[in-house]
Amino acid sequence: MRYLMTTKPTDAAPNENLYMEMGKFIEELTAAGVLLATGGLEPGGVRVTSFGEEITVMDGPFAEAKEAVAGFALVEVRSKEEAIELTRRFRKIVGDGESVIQQVFGP
């Protein structure tokens, strides 16, 4: 089962220990074959919306930037519970904030 784990931005400044702990965590998941992809996302981006025949393209940043996704990890695990446990470990490393876990369907 594949899960996309996303995290929202926070105002907390990262410290050197965070980078070391996150590096160890990423190495562990990569070695176990669990981590498929990971990365951070730009805060603004481009929003593309459609309504009927009209397509609108708008450059960010957007007013609701705190609701945006700041980073992601795509993992392949045996169960939803395993994805939750990985996310718990991630949150312990990065501290206060919010992450969302969604199962990925398809090939």
From TrEMBL:
Pfam annotation, one family? YCII
Q: Which residues form the YCII-related domain?
A: 1-89
Signal peptide residues are none
Q: Which PANTHER family does the UniProt record give?
A: BLL7171 PROTEIN-RELATED
Q: Which family does it belong to?
A: Belongs to the YciI family.
Give the protein name, as stated in the record.
YCII-related domain-containing protein
